[in-house]
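the two lines:
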Amino acid sequence: MIDAAYASWALLSRDLRAVSRSRSQLYSSLLFPLMLLALLGTGVSSGLAPTSPRILNGDYTSYLAPGMIAMTALFSSTFSSAGFYRDRESGLLRAMLASPHSAQTILFGKALGAILIGTVQALAVLVLAVVIPGIDLAWQFGWLGGVATVVVTILALNFMLSGISLLLAVRIKTMQGFHLIMNLVLFPLFFLSGAFFPLDQVPTWLEVIGYINPLTYAVDLLHYASYADSPDGLIGPLIDGLVLGGLAMLLFVFGLRRAPRAV
Amino acid sequence: MIGLLGPNGAGKSTILKMLSGEIEPQQGSVTIFDQPHGREARRRIGLVLQEPSTDDLMTLEETLQLHGRLFGLRGRTLHRRSDELLDSLGLGERAGDRCETLSGGLRRRLDLARSLLHEPELLLLDEPTLALDPDSSAAIWDTLSTRVSAGVAVVVCSNDTAEAEAYANRVVIVDEGQVVAEDTPASLTSGLLHDALELDWPSATGNDVAELERWPGVGTVLWTEDQIVLTVEESSEIVPHLFQRYGSQIDGIRIRESSLRDAWFQIVGRPLTNSREDER
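prediction for all of em together
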């Protein structure tokens, strides 16, 4: 057990070092959500004057902020999976799997890196959202409780995304194929998560898809913790937590258990 | 040191993957150190893959640190072994450089250092000197020979019969997934006559081959599409006869001492295609 923890730590620290050296990954993960906040947020707020009661005072930029935090986690997870492919293509993953540790330990160590990096980057967007003038966040559970809820939500979201990435990456042999699947599946799911528009005012068929979508529960919890001034129109933290936590655990454990030794 | 010898696609790498525990055999079982394959066996095995397995963004030192930690090494022991191996393989001055700056030969040396870091009792290597410059090849074979002297068992895949003959204590010839011969290089070549003649002879016929087989002093005669290889007792006696009888038909001739390559030819019945000796 100690050996496995030591190995996971070695893999985690290696991935953190790799990301710190890949600055384009760091910058693009942060710049894209900020760009959307600035351009889409301002454009919709000013140009379309949204009237939904869920978008407080018609301020779409602030409404968008929790979704952008979730999107950063999604982007980061995709980038980290690219690291998995890089290790597989370079043969490094095979060399690591030849160690005494189980494939699960090796992939757990790599996934920890992706989760930590995704969480830190998402929280960096939260910090920027707090300090940028014009973005009004509200804390349902108080400032400390709100931040704690956001951190836990982002962690759970990253565990879930890592589970999905593991399931896909051990089966899809090329990075291009992986990105294609991520773009085809995850991005539509993200658009239907309530990150860009409230789900309670869309056609029923879209609303149903939205509530089947696991990302919806993460975005809902982020809205609840850091944006909404009341629970009206939201799913609520209990259901959000149960669905998100349950799926995160299930997908992550399932993803690890399905990992083969030969990659 | 055991040399697994065979052409590309013969099954050498698959055997190595089974020995390293990467894949399980569809039939039969693999026993390493009298135990079924598992975590303890992997702890005692060092593996060098066919392609360099390095991360461009990591330094050489970091590469060894990572693998050392995966094998439970830590602290001073890890640093000492890492430094010693880098020095012994001529990489000491590059320890802080990123792997992206290394040539193919230096990457292979780093792979070998990585595989030796935890002092394995069994070393598995898949074409460790493929496409390497002579200096890097020599550095790798020297290191392997030293380890063999120290009691480490080495299994090395190759399609280079010259290397196998020079370094392996035993050779296992693999063809189409089957072991077709297994012995010392000396025993495998002991039945061969002294010299080998390689004749470029596209127009040769079955009758020509049959006639050559009847000549005194000629051993095996192997005929491929445009080449005939024959082992002979004394090339200086046979070559004049050859040119006298078939001179106008033979485009070229190469004379060398018989080797494991001819033993391969004799055992398998066809040349070792795609071998690195062909490239040379």
